[in-house]
Amino acid sequence: MSSTVFVKVVGFRDVERHALNTLFRVSAEQPTCYALWTPEAPVMPHIALIDVESYEAGMTLASPGLNRNLKLICVGEGAPERAWRVFPRPINWKAILHCMDLLFAQVGVDIDLDPDGQSTTIIPPGVRQSLIIEPTRDDRLYLRARLSLAGLIDVDEVESVPQAQKKLRERHYDVVIVNVDMLDDPWALVERLTVAHPPIGSVVVTTANRSWAMHERAEQSGCRALLDKPYDPGHLYRVFQMV
C-alpha cells in the first residue's frame, strides 16, 4: 500500500511549479507518493519545500505558527540555519526527490549486511528517534500517527519495561513516551530516563488517572509533559511540536 507525504510548497516561479507538479504526478505510481499540501489536506504537512528568495518565504519563516519540527528543504540563497537541506538554482529536482525518499521512503528499512554480518538501518541525517512504551496496541498506533504529524517519523514501539530496556541499550532516543498506568514499576524507568547519559531530549508520560499528585511526580521526575487519556489531538500536537 502506498503512503502519501504532504509537501508544503512556498514560493517558486511558474516554470518551477510546473516541474514540481510533474514530480508529484509521477510519484503517484510509487510506494511513497508526494502531494501538494493545502489547508484542506487531512493532515499537517510532513515537510516544507521553500524558495527562500521569494517574498512568501520571508512571511512563512517569520510566522510564529510555523512548526519548528518541520523539515525544511530550501532553494536559493539566504536559507535559514535550521534548513535540513539547501539546493542552488538551477534546481536539481532529482536530487530533491532523493532527499525526500531518504527521509520518508527508507526510514526503518533494513538494507544489506555490514562487514560484521549485522543488518543496518538507514537513519537519514537530522531525523530524531522516538520510543513509545505502551502495552495497548491501539494507543501505540495512535501515538505513532500523532508523532508523525509533528515531524517525528522514526518511531520504535515496545509493550513492557524489559523490552524498553533492551531498546534503550541498542539505540539513543530523542523522545520517549511512557504509559505510567499499565507498566511494571514505570516511575523507576522514568527516573532513569530523565538522568540518562547521553541525555534523552524529552520524556513524556501518559495516564488515564491524572491528579495533582501525578502532575507533581511527573514534574519532579523531570518529564517534559503529562498526557491525559483519552487523548486530546490538539494538545498532543502542541506537545509533540515542543519535544
Write the topology of this structure.
Blueprint: E1 3-10, H1 14-27, E2 32-36, E3 47-51, H2 55-62, E4 71-75, E5 85-87, H3 93-104, E6 110-113, E7 119-121, E8 129-133, H4 137-149, E9 154-158, H5 161-170, E10 175-179, H6 186-194, E11 202-207, H7 212-220, E12 225-228, H8 233-242
Parallel strand pairs: 1-2, 1-3, 3-4, 4-5, 8-9, 8-10, 10-11, 11-12
Antiparallel strand pairs: 6-7
Q: Which geometry do the CA atoms define?
A: elongated
Oligomer: single chain
- Termini separation: 30 Å
Instruction: Identify low-pLDDT runs.
Output: 106-125
Q: Write down the secondary-structure element order.
A: EHEEHEEHEEEHEHEHEHEH
Count of alpha and pi helical runs:
8
Q: What is the gyration radius calculated from CA atoms?
A: 20 Å
CATH C-level class of the largest domain: Alpha Beta
Helical content, roughly? 25-40%
Number of domains: 2
Tell me about the biggest sheet?
5 strands, parallel
Given helix and strand content, the structural type is alpha/beta
Task: Provide structural commentary.
By secondary structure, the chain is an alpha/beta fold. It folds into two domains: 3-104, Rossmann fold (3-Layer(aba) Sandwich), CATH 3.40.50.2300; 129-242, 3-Layer(aba) Sandwich (Rossmann fold), CATH 3.40.50.2300. It has helices at 14-27, 55-62, 93-104, 137-149, 161-170, 186-194, 212-220, 233-242, and strands at 3-10, 32-36, 47-51, 71-75, 85-87, 110-113, 119-121, 129-133, 154-158, 175-179, 202-207, 225-228. Strands 2-1-3-4-5 form a five-stranded parallel beta sheet. It has a five-stranded parallel beta sheet with strand order 9-8-10-11-12, with helices on both faces. Mean pLDDT is 83; it is low at 106-125.
